[in-house]
Specification:
Belongs to the virb1 family. The chain is mainly alpha-helical. 66% of the residues lie in helices and 3% in strands. It is globular.
Amino acid sequence: MKILRVALLAAASLMMAQAANAGEAEYAEMVATHARANGVPEALVHRVIMRESRYQPGLVGRGGTIGLMQIKLATARGVGYTGDAAGLRDPNTNLTYAVKYLAGAYRAANGDHARAVRYFAGGYY
């Protein structure tokens, strides 16, 4: 029974990794566009997406975080978003506002990726 459980966990982990890789490829061009527009390294944007949603654009997390980068509606509004919460499930819309917010965290972290991720997740202003 224990061997079966380990095998199932390994298979599930592999499937999740494959799905994340497919998601990264699917959104690579969009991520590149938003990263360039906001002066943020693409790798940092991908790191946040992987950490927050594993490339699941429709994901709604605890505390009302939404979409690829799991941004809160109030945070998105703080950087200019005027739509409703459902609009943040659109990958392009989510990236527009979440990468803008990440850019501020990146600057506040003086370019330190790990600190920028912490600032993005916990707030920095």
